[in-house]
Amino acid sequence: MSMNKPTVQNSLSSLQARHDETLVELELYKLLVDNVQDYAIFFMDTGGYIRTWNKGAQKNKGYTAKEIVGKHFSKFYPQSDIDNRKPDRELELARRNGRVEDEGWRLRKDGSSFWANVVITSLYDTDGTLIGYAKVTRDLTQRKAQEDELRKTNMLLKKQQHDLRLLNASKDEFISLASHQLRTPATGVKQYVGMLIEGFTGELQPGQQGLLEKAYESNERQLRIISDLLKVAQVDAGKIKPLKTMTNIHELIASIINEQHDSFSKRHQTISYIKPTNTIEARVDCNLIRMVIENIINNASKYSHENKAVAVRLSETGDAVCIEVKDQGVGIMPTDIPRLFEKFSRIDNDLSSHVGGSGLGLYWAKKIVDLHNGTIEMSSVPDAGTTFSIILPK
Questions:
Q1: Residue 71 maps to a domain
Q2: Closest C-alpha to 122, from 68, 54, 48
Q3: Which of 193-202, 273-282, 290-299 has the lowest mean pLDDT?
Q4: How far apart are the C-alpha atoms of 366 and 253, rounded to whole Å?
Q5: 74, 34, 28: which is closest to 52 by C-alpha?
Q6: How far is 215 from 189, CA to CA, in rounded Å?
Q7: Regarding predicted confidence, which is higher, 341 or 86?
Q8: Domain, as residue range, for 292
Q9: Is the dihedral of CA 293, 295, 297, 300 positive or negative?
Q10: Which residues, in sequence order, are CB contacts of 187 under 8 Å at separation 6+?
């Protein structure tokens, strides 16, 4: 017997120590919960009646512990939720699943609403018997207001984007219609003025001849602008679909340069072609790529002074074809390069006021090259010249 006394005494001491530790832990836990202010944390019995109340609950909901303990937690729900049995259904879900989480409008003591994130957790004793629920509520009104504002802004942006697309479509349709309507009378003027210059109505006086030639050239510029507007409207509307066929790129460039010789001679300029020794072919829309190359070569001539040279080179690297057009022109300032391929963009330089143009040529050319999955690269030195490289997949 004497041998068992120390053992029993030790066991009692150990149990007492664990009991004291548990009490301390419970007191610390209670102190922690009671002093949390950002979250409303309270305990409810199995019927949903409030049994504890922390400082966060008082701060968020406005009730003191004396005012609210013993009341049903449905007191925090709008009448519409009560009519729909939402508080009861949340307890049922928590009892069935162990917990339930919800977001919605809740009420404070003063009747004001706040947007709450709510978590209700079922609590069981050691025998597995439900003893109540723990409820944690967080005020997310500010976050909800920010999300609502962001959602409203996104809806406004979507509407603006939709309106812009409609406006852009209307603009493209107007440009296309206007271009067609303008082309007919301009073409008629060209024919009649051409007939006068050719002498269909008799011999012209020297002064008359000069004036008619100026009128003819002005009309030609107008037709080119109308043509540019129409092409851009079509490509922006997605109406241009490249009809690609295997094309001998060397023959295409040679044909373009042969047609350009007269205009280069009139400007007292020269154009050379550095052609490859082998045949280079690529699957392209021959007519569209022809217009792109013509545009680049014509620009090289327009923005070069007299007695300057333009060189065209054709080469291939791997699966790509490169068409390089190098001039000795006025060049482009680095600050102007970002605007080069923009619609209606014209770069100011020594020759821009004399050559005219719509500011659409390079924009359209890039669109066509993009439709071929190619690229246009450019390098320039002011007062020394510019090099454009059209790179197309074979």
A1: yes
A2: 48
A3: 193-202
A4: 18
A5: 34
A6: 9
A7: 86
A8: 245-393
A9: negative
A10: 223
Q: Say if residue 222 is in the same domain as residue 331.
A: no
Residues 285 and 244: beta-carbon distance below 8 Å: yes
Report whether pLDDT(1) > 50: no
Structure tokens at 210: 């000069």
E-strand ranges in the chain read 39-44, 99-107, 113-124, 130-139, 245-248, 270-274, 281-284, 309-317, 320-327, 375-381, 385-393
Phi, psi of 78 (to 5 degrees): -60, 155
Structural Rg of the chain based on CA atoms = 42
Task: Read off φ and ψ for residue 359, nearest 5 degrees.
Answer: 75, 20
Beta carbons within 8 Å of 287's beta carbon, 6+ residues apart:
none
Domain count, the chain: 3
Tokens coding 96: 């069935």
Contacts of 260 (CB under 8 A, 6+ apart): 271, 294, 297, 298, 301
Asked if 150 and 134 sit in the same domain, the reply is no
| Distance, CA of 43 to CA of 136 (rounded, Å) | 9
371 assigned to some structural domain: yes
Residues forming beta bridges with residue 7, ordered by sequence position: none
Please give the Cα distance from 46 to 44 (Å, whole number). 7
pLDDT (0 to 100) of residue 174: 66
Q: What is the pLDDT of residues 305-339, one digit of tens each?
A: 899 999 999 999 889 999 999 999 888 888 888 88
φ, ψ dihedrals at 2, nearest 5°:
-65, -25
Contact (Cβ atoms closer than 8 angstroms) between residue 59 and residue 36: no
In a domain, 188, yes or no: yes
Residue 290 identity: R
Name which residue leads in pLDDT, 384 or 38: 384
Quick check: pTM over 0.90? no
Co-location of 82 and 165 in the same domain: no
